[in-house]
Design goal:
Blueprint lengths: L8 H4 L9 E5 L6 E5 L6 E8 L1 H10 L3 E6 L6 E4 L12 E5 L30 H13 L2
Antiparallel strand pairs: 1-2, 2-3, 3-6, 4-5, 4-6
């Protein structure tokens, strides 16, 4: 029997602006919920659970393909990147495993969108009064 739709799937596959081109669907064969990458010429199907470092090891041992979830700075959006060899794999990264029908997903950990970074207000110059005076003198004498 198919599982219920994971509540985090709407965060991973948002409607509207979606640079990752992910859509939430049921698999046509096993009827499990999956995230489908519709950004390329061929649709790629992924399990909705997020892989961390320990799950990534399991995916590599099982020979299951995966793709990296890369956050877009300053937003809550993500994009997908295909890891290339050992340089593309990072232990602190988040990944999605390729879906295989009638196999148990490697992970069902929920996706948590990246938090927006808060900007700090500029506190003014960090130079001393003497350094500012020297700069002003040099600035005036430059002409």
């Amino acid at each position: 029997m198919a599982r219920r739709k994971p509540p985090w799937l709407r965060l991973l596959c948002p409607k509207g602006v979606n640079p990752a081109h992910l859509t939430a669907r049921r698999c046509g064969t096993c009827h499990e919920w999956v995230a489908v990458d519709t950004g390329g010429p061929v649709e790629e199907v992924y399990d909705p659970g997020v892989l961390d470092a320990t799950d990534l090891t399991t995916a590599i041992i099982l020979g299951r393909g995966f793709i990296r979830i890369k956050p877009i700075a300053g937003t809550t959006l993500v994009t997908l990147r295909t890891p290339c060899g050992a340089r593309g794999i990072e232990p602190e990264g988040l990944y999605l495993a390729r879906h295989e029908c009638f196999h148990e997903p490697i992970s069902m950990k929920p996706f948590k969108p990246p938090r927006r970074s808060t900007r700090t207000a500029w506190a003014g110059p960090t130079a001393s009064a003497e350094e500012i005076r020297q700069f002003e003198t040099a600035w005036r004498n430059k002409q």
